[in-house]
Amino acid sequence: MAQLPDGEPVPDDGTLPDSALTDVGGRGFGVYLHVPFCASRCGYCDFNTYTASELGGADTEGYVEAVLAELALAAKVLPAPPRVDTVFVGGGTPTLLKPAQLGRMLEAVDRTWGLAAGAEVTTEANPESVDPASLRELRRAGFTRISLGMQSAAPGVLRILDRKHTAGRAPAAAVEAREAGFEHVNLDLIYGTPGETEDDFAASLAAVVRAGVDHVSAYALIVEDGTRLSARIRRGELASPDDDVAADRYLAAEAALSAAGLGWYEVSNWAADEAARCAHNLLYWQGGDWWGLGPGAHSHVGGVRWWNVKHPARYAARLAEGLSPGLGREILTAEQRHTEDVLLRLRLVEGLPLEVLDEPGRAAAGQALADGLLEPSAYADGRAALTLRGRLLADAVVHSLLAW
Predict the structure, then answer these.
(1) I need a surface site. Which of 70, 234, 240, 334 has the fewest CB within 10 A?
(2) Are residue 247 and residue 126 in the same domain, yes or no?
(3) What is the pLDDT of residue 1?
């Protein structure tokens, strides 16, 4: 699993500097809730997740109690933030918990800070972990959006990724979610898996379109150190992902999804309209505040970022002692916040105002425009917004604008 960053110690009571509390929620306030349980481990995944055998049994009820204890601590640290705009339950596989358990944690968030009217409430789910009955229960519990980990419609690709659902299960679950009353449904795709063919990815895109979802996320496979997939590639069992193939897959996704009426709004995300965009992720990309609950969860409030201890047992033990589960934190400098602002906002369809760039950055933007990487109409309006070619080279554009 990925290592947590270094940082200064978090105070035992989780107290934040006064400077972090002056404008909490000025760019939105959200709650992320991490569920660390998975039925099995996917070969490409390095997230902070654990199978029941790794934990000696998954104590889901004990986990819920620990989250409620962290919420009680959070209420003392942030006694009066704005109401919660978004809640996102991620994992792991959140739907290994019962809908009633997920609903209980959502109710606690509402009691602690209050959900804003029309708040977006998302849960991730593996397609095989939900059925029509559980989806209806989740909807009744207050969830308005669901994100299903499809990854591919090709059985061979799913096997390489160690996914357990059948090829048709994710689109079927998306239809069931709509029928259960979910307002917004996302399907996640991964492209560039070793062995994936052009036809495999075309079939995945076609399946997504047929499912009628209003949001699609598509990410190039990243091979993380320490994963089973990384070991298989190192042993020569599988080829390494190819950057040129990944670029071709991205272009295929843009063509198929835009033809189906889904427009890109972030480099890896497409939505049917503005209402279908993931408000929680936009909060991240636009520099909002959020409290991350659960083992290994990250938070950001007023320029202070912190992260919790990773293991569920240690997380629960610290909270049982009345201590913050925070392992470390960093207080971002103005330069760091500027860098992140450029890095994240440039990925959005609206781009970022040219005025936030320094003189070398504006000169680099002019060169990126000349190179066909920025939209001329947006540039004329004082914004740096990526073209399709610019999206393929987004990291390079960011580096140039920040003069790295």
Answers:
(1) 334
(2) yes
(3) 54
- What pLDDT is attached to residue 2? 60
| DSSP H stretches of helix in 115-264 | 132-141, 155-161, 169-179, 198-211, 228-234, 243-259
Domains in the chain, number: 2
Domain co-membership, 250 together with 349:
no
Domain that residue 138 falls in: 18-285
Burial-class residue 228 by CB neighbours within 10 Å (0-12, 13-18, 19+): middle
Q: Provide the pLDDT for residue 382.
A: 98
Residue 340's Cβ-count burial label (10 Å; 0-12, 13-18, 19+) is middle
Q: Name the DSSP class of 386.
A: B
Asked if the structure places residue 220 within a domain, the reply is yes
Q: Among 223, 254, 285, where does a domain finish?
A: 285
- CA nearest 120: which of 296, 361, 281? 281
**229-285 per-position pLDDT tens digit:** 999 999 999 999 999 999 999 999 999 999 999 999 999 999 999 999 999 999 999
Residues 108 and 238 in one domain: yes
Question: Both tokens of residue 85?
Answer: 């705009």
Residue 315 belongs to a domain: no
Q: Distance (Å, rounded) from C-alpha 397 to C-alpha 404? A: 10
285, 301, 322 — which closes off a domain? 285
Q: What average pLDDT does the segment 386-403 reach?
A: 97
Over residues 189-213, the pLDDT tens digits come to 999 999 999 999 999 999 999 999 9
74 with 132, same domain?
A: yes
C-beta separation of 87 from 30 below 8 A: yes
**73 falls within a domain:** yes
Residue 107: inside a domain: yes
Q: What is the CATH number of the domain that holds 159?
A: 3.20.20.70
Are 48 and 34 in contact by the 8 Å Cβ rule? The answer is: yes
Q: How far apart are CA 176 and CA 146, in angstroms?
A: 11
pLDDT score, position 4: 67
> Could you identify the residue written with the tokens 């709509």?
178
Burial class of 103 by CB neighbour count within 10 A (0 to 12, 13 to 18, 19+): middle
| pLDDT at 343 > cutoff 60 | yes
Same domain, 73 and 222: yes
Q: Which of 132, 162, 183, 144 is nearest to 44 (CA)?
A: 162
The 10s digit of each residue's pLDDT in 158-186 is: 999 999 999 999 999 999 999 999 999 99
